[in-house]
Amino acid sequence: MICPPALRRALFSLLSSGRLDAAQAVAQGSHTPAATLALQALEHRTRGRALLRERLESEGASITHRLRRGLGVLSATATVAPLLGLLGTVLGMVQVFQAVENSTEPRISDLAGGIWVALLTTVAGLAVAIPSYLAHRYLESRLDSASDTLETFSEDLLDAVTGPRPLEGTSGNELPKE
């Protein structure tokens, strides 16, 4: 799980009460992407909001990159499988034409073997490509959702560690006007 609700509640409860050591211990006890971000935020909390934001964005990008690992293979499989099926189709049709080439009266049985190969490889290519493509799209959507969750968590973490977001149009370093 990317950001377990129990971890989120525990971290923000501890951070809001200023118990940073306890929050760090909770994060160290969880091996989730959210815990990794929390540890980064706690470790770099004194560096200022802008640098902390940069650090969290960098770590979030690294986590997303690790989660994306393997999707390329699935995408390549979905792309290459129909091409392999097409290759088999072409080879099957070559076999058909070779059977017909030297025959004055080709028999159906001479043609059927090549056509059978052509159709079978097409079916095999599609049988691999369609589920691969669907799995790839599903995992991509899950990854997009996880990325959004991490981004929201990072923003909330940034606020919890450094204080609320500065007002629009300010750098966050100005004192509030009374």
Question: What's the N-to-C terminus distance?
Answer: 44 Å
Tell me, what's the shape? rod-shaped
Helix content: over 70%
Query: What's the total count of β strands?
Result: 0
What is the total number of structural domains? 2
Strand-pairing-aware structural class: mainly alpha
Mean pLDDT: 89
* Poorly predicted segments: 172-178
Taken as a percent bin, the fraction of beta residues is under 5%
Computed CA radius of gyration, to the nearest angstrom: 29 Å
Main sheet properties: none
The tally of helices reads: 6
H and E order:
HHHHHH
Summarize the SSE layout with pairings.
Blueprint: H1 5-16, H2 20-28, H3 33-43, H4 49-68, H5 71-101, H6 108-162
Helix pairs in contact: 1-2, 1-6, 2-3, 3-4, 3-6, 4-6, 5-6
